[in-house]
Design a protein that fits this description.
With about 150 residues, the chain is of the alpha+beta class. It has helices at about 5-20, 65-80, 80-90, 125-150, and strands at about 45-50, 55-60, 95-100, 105-115. A hairpin with a 3-residue loop joins β1 and β2 (about 55-60).
Length: about 150
């Protein structure tokens, strides 16, 4: 078991290593990007990566404060579901309603890599590979569909 400060340090080291690994990787438009803190450029739409004790994940999170706006945006993604699946080359889990770490309602589309632990450095290559693949595919998808979400809600 790690103390709180040790756990924070290990996670910080992991994300620093991931950031350094991804730094030379260009986005779908050929530009440099901060992959660790990916900006979609559209309010209330986030691409999230996480690595924990039991799994790693890549997700699209919709955090609109108004339920009807969140539902409308989620439905736009549903309309693009086939295209998203083709770009991602796998099926992700669709959650029209979940509660985030602050207890606030949100929607998300998520893929998880189970049975990995960020506190086990032997798992880092698998986690990094999974996160890289997921965020780069989301970037490719987003490059094509972002105009459909700009200016909305």
């Amino acid at each position: 078991m790690y103390s709180r400060s040790e756990a924070i340090q290990i996670k910080k080291e992991f994300w620093t290593r991931f950031g350094l690994y991804m730094k030379p990787v260009k986005n779908a438009a050929g530009h440099t990007t901060n992959w660790v803190n990916y900006k979609t450029g559209v309010r209330h739409i986030y691409f999230r990566m996480d690595a924990g004790k039991r799994a790693a994940s890549v997700a699209i999170e919709l955090k609109h404060p108004q339920p009807e706006d969140r539902e409308s945006t989620y439905n736009k993604f549903v309309q693009l579901k086939t295209y998203l699946k083709n770009v991602l080359q796998e099926t992700w889990d669709w959650e029209p309603l979940f509660y985030d770490e602050d207890g606030l309602p949100a929607s998300r589309i998520i893929q998880q890599l189970p049975d990995v632990n960020v506190f086990n450095q032997a798992d880092w290559p698998a986690i990094i590979s999974f996160l890289k693949d997921g965020i780069m595919k989301l970037d490719l998808f987003w490059t094509d569909v972002k105009p459909q979400f700009e200016g909305a809600i």
